[in-house]
Each structure stands twice: as structure tokens, then as C-alpha cells.
Amino acid sequence: MAAVLRRGFRLVSFGSSQLLCGGCKHGRTSSLSICSTSSRNSSSSSSSSSSHVKVDLDGSTGIAVVKFQSSPVNSMSLDFLTELCISLEKLELDRSCRGVILTSALPKIFSAGLDITEMYGKNPEHYAEFWKSVQEIWLKVYGYSKIAIAAINGSSPAGGCLVSMACDYRIMADDPRYRIGLNEAQLGIVAPFWFKDTMVNTVGFRTTELSLQFGLMYSPSDALKIGLVDQVVPEENVLSTATETITKWLAIPDHAREISKSMMRKPMVDRLLASRESDIKNFVNFITKDSIQKSLGFYMNSLKQRKA
Ligand SMILES: CCCCCCCCCCCCC/C=C/C(=O)SCCNC(=O)CCNC(=O)[C@H](O)C(C)(C)COP(=O)(O)OP(=O)(O)OC[C@H]1O[C@@H](n2cnc3c(N)ncnc32)[C@H](O)[C@@H]1OP(=O)(O)O
Q1: Fewer CB within 10 Å, N or C, the chain?
Q2: Going by CA atoms, what residue is nearest to atom 28 of ligand 1?
Q3: 184 is annotated as an active-site residue
Q4: 152: CA distance to ligand 1 center in Å?
């Protein structure tokens, strides 16, 4: 599993401007199976599926629906992150795709965030590889050249919230049982600077300050109030609303939208790119501390006991 994601962002010329363009370099064969519903023409549609991610691309609209399907809670393991990154990379390179909708195939959960078992009881090399894949998915989604909409059809703590915030627009299901937020502090861990900055850019400084220190999780209506999500709609309408929304974004000329997005986001992407290695070191130092391992162990047990 070593060297799964070994890439950085590259700059691609677009007219006189340079745009961010991601690419996941992966050193293993992807288990994605692909089937095309018509032969090679501009309106061909395709489906592909791996164990964690399912992709349906409608070639006639240019919209791809990327569904998380990692039972039981779409926790983001190294394999999940790798497959998601590869799928997004393929879509980014596919000229027939103009935008993606990220959503969940599982009931009640968008994503439970990072897979805690990847951060507990493992060795430093594993932690470093895992963290690199977390950086990778953020770089990929936050710097995505195409439109990315999160259709949040369930709870979305921590890493799930991060991926949603990295999208261009968020639509959440109106179910008061669902929660979204960066709850790291409640686990006894700390959201790194790029999680924090993504939230600051979404909801502002003061709300982020309170959210991070308390590890606040918001109901859909509260998330809407603070601007953590852009729309709250009945659950059955989440995907159709995301499709309607992305259609509006598609009406904007791609190059103008892409350059505008890059102008807003490139400084943050560059900041992480410039400090990837130190960020990995910080993570490994932090996560290997006895006190942090103890907190995570305690949290995992509490999740299991909640069920009992
Ligand atoms: C100077 C500054 C220094 C700073 C340095 C910083 C360095 C960086 C530090 C580290 C940063 C890490 C950032 C972390 C980000 C994260 O994403 S951490 C993960 C946070 N996620 C959560 O807290 C969610 C926990 N889960 C839940 O709340 C619930 O499970 C749910 C998602 C709401 C679903 O509930 P329900 O449907 O009732 O399912 P459950 O029964 O609870 O769960 C089913 C099984 O799944 C397991 N599970 C749940 N979540 C996770 C997870 N995130 N990872 C792994 N496994 C998970 C759960 O234990 C159940 O397992 P079983 O009992 O075995 O069935």
C-alpha cells in the first residue's frame, strides 16, 4: 500500500492564466470497473464502481454523481481516500465531465469522517501515509478545476465536514437528527491549520473559533444559519436540488469560473503544498503521543458502548 498517492498539484496553462489542476498519482491498479452506456461520443454515459466509491457520469449533461458506499458509515480509510481521489482525478481528466456531485449511497450518513482505526495503534509510517492521503483528498477537492457540489444526505462530522466544505456548494438533508461540523476537539484531537482555514473561509473567523474549541456539531438548520451549508431541503430532494444547482453553475463559461475559483483558492492550496512534509511530521508527532492514543481509544470505545 506504500506510495499510493504521490503527487502534488501542477499548474496547467489556460489561455493566459495558470489554473490549479490536481492529479492523484497512484502506484497500484485501481479496482474500478467501468461500463459505458454508449460508444465513444460526446454524450456517452458511464458507470464505474469500486468497493468504496460509485461513479455515474451522464455524458449528455456533463454531471457525474460520486457516491460513497463504504459500509457501515463511510469512514475515510486509506483505501477509501485513495479510491475517491482516483475517481475524482479520472473525472477531472474526462472532457465529457464538467461537474461532480458528492453524496452517499448509505442511509443517514454522508461520511463519519476520517477512519479512526487508521490513526490508532499503528506505526508512524502508516500514520504518515494515511495523513498524506488526507492531504491529497483535500488538495484534490479544494483545488478541483470542475464544479463540486456536496449533496449531504446524512451526518457529516470532521473529515466528512472538511470534504463538504472543500466543495463549491453544500446542500443538506433537512433531518434534525443529522449533524455536521468539525468535532475534533471532542475526540481530544486538534484540527490542523488547513481544516481550520477551510472553515474560516466558509463561515468566518468567530464562528470557526467557537466551533473548533467546542468541537461543535450543527443540525442542518443551524448549519444553514451560520453558512456551513448553503441550502437545506427535504432528504428526498437533496440529489435533484444538487442537479438543479450544478446546472446553474454549468451556465457559466468554464474558463471564467475556473479562473475565479483558482484565484480564491490557490493561496490556501499553495500554503499546504509548501508545508506538506512538516504537516505530516506534526500529525505523526501528535497522533503517536500516548495521551492522544488514549483519547482516541477512549472515543472508539464510547462509540461502541453507545450501541450496546
Ligand atoms: C501546534 C498545533 C498542533 C496541531 C497538530 C495537528 C495534527 C493533526 C491532528 C489530528 C487531526 C485529525 C483530524 C480528524 C478528523 C476526523 O475525521 S476524526 C473522525 C471523527 N468522526 C467522528 O467523530 C464520528 C464518529 N461516529 C459517529 O458519530 C457515528 O458513528 C455516526 C457517524 C453518527 C453514525 O452513527 P450510527 O449510524 O449510530 O453508527 P455507529 O453504530 O455509531 O457506528 C457504526 C460502526 O462504525 C464505527 N465508526 C463510526 N465512526 C467511525 C470512524 N470515524 N472511524 C472508524 N469507525 C467508525 C463505529 O465504531 C461502529 O463500529 P462497530 O461497533 O464495530 O460496528
Answers
A1: C
A2: 112
A3: yes
A4: 17
Which atom of ligand 1 is nearest the CA belonging to 195? 13
d(CA 261, CA 55) in angstroms, rounded, equals: 24
A 10 A CB-CB count for 58 gives 17
Q: From CA 167, how far away is CA 160, in angstroms rounded?
A: 11
282 Cα to the center of ligand 1, angstroms: 21
Which residues, 6 or more positions from 300, have their beta carbon under 8 angstroms from its beta carbon?
A: 116, 117, 120
183 noted as active-site residue: yes
Note the pLDDT tens digit of each residue in 98-142.
999 999 999 999 999 999 999 999 999 999 999 999 999 999 999
Listed residue (168, 180, 179, 171) closest to 237, CA to CA: 171
pTM, whole model, 2 decimals?
0.91
AA identity, residue 272: L
Strand partners, 56: 47, 65
Cβ neighbours for 236, distance < 8 A, ≥ 6 positions apart: none
Q: What is the pLDDT of residues 279-297, one digit of tens each?
A: 999 999 999 999 999 999 9
Distance 299 CA to ligand 1 centre (A): 8
Break the chain down into helix, strand, coil percent, rounded to 5. Answer: 45, 20, 35
Closest ligand 1 atom to residue 191 Cα is 11
Helices (H) and strands (E) counted in the chain, each on its own, are: 11, 12
Using the mean position of ligand 1's atoms as its centre, give its distance from the Cα of residue 303 in Å.
8
CB-ligand 1 contact for 159 (6 Å cutoff): yes
Q: Domains (ranges, CATH) in the chain?
A: 43-307 (3.90.226.10)
Contact status, residue 91 vs residue 51, Cβ threshold 8 Å: no
Strands annotated E in the chain: 10-14, 17-21, 33-36, 46-49, 53-58, 63-68, 99-104, 147-152, 156-157, 169-173, 180-181, 231-233
Which contiguous run of DSSP H or E holds residue 125?
A: helix 124-142
159 is catalytic: yes
